[in-house]
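Quick entry between incubations.
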Amino acid sequence: MMMNNQIILVVDDTEHILKLSRDIFEIAGFKVITAVDGEQALRILAEKKIDLVVTDILMPNTDGYLLCYTIRTSERLKDIPVIIYSATYTSFSDEEMAMEMGADKFIRKPASMDELISAAQYFLSDSRKFVHKIPAKPKSLEATRLYKEGLVLRLESRNIELIERKEKLEQGESRLKEAQTIAHIGSWEIDMVNNVQHWSDELFNIFGIINEGALPSTELFLSFIHPDDFDFVSKKHEAFKLLTDSSYDFRFIRKDGSVRHGYSKYRFEFNKDRRPVRLSGIIQDITEKKLAAAELHTAHDRLLFHIENTSLGFIEWDNQLLVKSWSKRAEEIFGWTEKEFMDAQKTGYSQVFDEDLPWVSKMSRQLITGEVTRNRVQYRNYTKDGRVIWCEWFNSVLKDRDGEVITIMSLVQDITAEKTSEEVQRRKLEKLVEERTHELNESLKKEKELVEMKNKFVSIASHEFRTPLSTISFAAESIRNYFHQLTPEEIKRKLIKIEDQASHMTNLLEDILTIGKSETGKIKVKRISLDLKEFIDSLIEEVRATVKEPREINFTFSCLSRKVNADDKLLRNVFNNLLTNALKFSASGTPVTIVVSDFDGDILIEVTDEGIGIEEGELASVFESFQRGSNASAVQGTGLGLSILKKAVELMNGSVEVKSTINQGSTFRVQIPIQ
Amino acid sequence: MKKILMVEDTPHLSEEIADILRLEGYRVAIAHNGHRAMELLPESNPDLIITDLLMPGMDGFELIRQVRSIASFKSIPIIILSAKTLDDDKLRGKEAGADAFIRKPCKAHELVTTINSLLKTKDLSKIT
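Done. Structure below.
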């Protein structure tokens, strides 16, 4: 080792660099004096003879540049060579600046030992042979000033950067803490080299011992473990020796006595030599998660209970309609156990009734393709023993996120009993509809008959008008055309005839209108209280007054009470017709008898004459419109009187009948209920 | 003087028609139904018959058929004078053998013209 007495002054504010530099230069055989900044360096330079200065740039108080400048501008020191040995973050402009300040060399940290030593040896071989650059004073000072300002700025910005970094780090730490708190995750680590254990705040919190100043240790952790889990967790800790990562669930008792669920996971870290240096892990309080899982489990159990106990069978099918599950109730309905049905399906068995199969298959396809996602259908099914039962199915389709059908759930109910009674009801209804249709047809038929009858009536009525009209027309024409050939007597006769026929037509018109009213239901029965005997007496007098010759009319009244409630207009019509007919169709010398009696709430009216009578064959049609007896042509009449009488009687809920012998007389008998 | 047999069940109408026909120079016999008309036919020996259709007993259609079945009355003019108004009745009348159909009520003139023309045609057919 070469030894000399040349002294190197190493100036640096970093202790280990000073130490390192000293070691390097001493190994190279130089003497080394150190200074921590430019100020101290200048004090040393003032007292001792220094052969070489190796200085850092950034230092407190007097920095490397100022030191360099001071040396170069000092008469006594100006020949000492200066090497700037500076940190990497110094820029090239720093190097330029260093040279301007009179530095002889600029070496960037970190430099190799050889580089430093050879540089030192180079400048110390003969320091005098170097002509040191003397910086021009004003420029240098200006440069120094600028440099200093730049340096301050740089330091400030670096400082700010550091503060920000520190803040970020602190924020990160606090966020981690927060995250740990929220997730109930505590972390821990064991420095396996120094056997130091560290726990995060949240880990203390999990065990309920935050802010109690407890020292983290494995023993502390084990002290919280639930007695039932203690052995198992202890074993896990013994297994640390195996150096394998692991995780496990466990129960622990917090300081406050509550039992909680935890999850532990840990991991080993190894160095290059595969030796464990660190064991780090987390512990999470998973009590809520555990409880939720337990809750879910209970909910599932509850659902299962309901499924098994509901009156609906529960069946789950896969997307090929093969049974996945089949409840007890389904077993009761169909007679198949789940296993049996699954096996039966494998052989192609279908529980659908043959007749219903086509549409049920179609419906099922819609379900397994997801075209229909739920429905409610009724059809017939076979049971295991081959019986046919009616079932109601409530199907729903479960799809995954992509819309693919996963399962089809069916609730099924045996509705055979309801269906059977429904069937009975349906038949009843059908029968009712049939009856109604029949009734409708009947009433339509009646309606048709009525229309036909009306048409016939109109036709006959028009016929009945044409005859008197013809007479009137001919008579009037005769008078006009043959006036001079006719005697006054003949003309008078024709005029009377015209009058008669006109009045006949008026009567006819009245009668037809009455019938029309009665048939369209326009006649309303209005009952009034009246004295029946008095009523009939006055009617007899009215009729008697219209007859040319005096007639014998015998009236017998034998009712218990004279008071009746009846429609006076209808009653008048009935009496008038009966009495007028009796008089009209009998000879003037014969009597007419009227007998009025009561029987069981009805009044009976009998009118008897000793007239021409009615042919036996014509009795049946005597009450029909425009029917006149073959022996009645000599007697004036519209052929409507009896028809109107019958309608009047029927309006009063009564009845009328006739007995007659030709050439001996007739008896009309009317029965009317009264109130 | 030509003779007319009139069959009509309504007396006031038959009287009135008979009056007019007599005034027009015909001799008139009246029957009130078909049976009576058949009875009167030989003795009255009419040149023309006027008949109603709706009558008690034998109706107009039957009367025409019966008259036509007698050889000597095979071609006697027959007029239907009826209140029946349907085309079907007209057709039936023609089928039965009536020569004319007059609807009631009608003008006396229409009836007389028809009678005259039918009698003239009959006379012409006799000559030729």
